[in-house]
């Protein structure tokens, strides 16, 4: 009972410190320790926070670690799932916080908007953004998961969504978990196939973005394959 009181007293003090000043003044391990309060009960989470940071190298690396790796480290399934929830919730929060209610796409900041859509995504995902004749967003979401190649190219789904939302133009994006934002041969072939399929239903493919870590590369603006984006203008 005395040990329980010690833990509860410490947690209460840390919680009050957070409520007064947020995470300002917290060291990285202290912030992780505080977070672990909510999935590790009646134990000293300071030591666990230090061990996690030592094992994975940084706070973001802890959150980005594969679920299985966290379990192998010694966390329970519930604790590992809780840590995996953090980047996912961060993405939802940031996306909602910066949501443009008018849904008019700003091409000067669209790269930043796309980057936010990939926060916490460890595997390769394909994002589809559809616009109407006035350049307003009518749909934005993940339409495929896995490698973007000819074996699982989501052409039919992209066409179906474009027809369903009566889109006039489209932008696609996918991430490279490898951390390299250069397009592969498969990326270029996939882009050409999607462009052709959309053109058959009167939808313009405006761009294809590749996301890697904190980098977002526009294939249209980089002129990697200029023939693929004859609708792009400076």
Structure description:
The chain is an alpha+beta fold and 234 residues long. It has two domains: 2-91; 98-229, Cytidine Deaminase, domain 2 (3-Layer(aba) Sandwich), CATH 3.40.140.10. It has ten helices and five strands; from the N terminus they run H-H-H-H-H-H-H-E-E-H-E-H-E-E-H. Strands 2-1-3-4-5 form a five-stranded mixed sheet, sandwiched between helices. Helix 9 (185-199) links the parallel strand 3 (169-175) and strand 4 (204-212). The longest helix has 21 residues, at 77-97. The chain is elongated, with a radius of gyration of 22 Å. The chain starts with a helix and ends in a 12-residue tail after the last helix. The relative contact order is 0.08. The mean pLDDT is 86.
What is the topological layout?
Blueprint: H1 2-21, H2 28-36, H3 45-56, H4 59-64, H5 67-73, H6 77-97, H7 110-117, E1 125-131, E2 137-145, H8 155-164, E3 169-175, H9 185-199, E4 204-212, E5 215-218, H10 219-222
Parallel strand pairs: 3-4
Antiparallel strand pairs: 1-2, 1-3, 4-5
Helix pairs in contact: 2-3, 5-6, 8-9
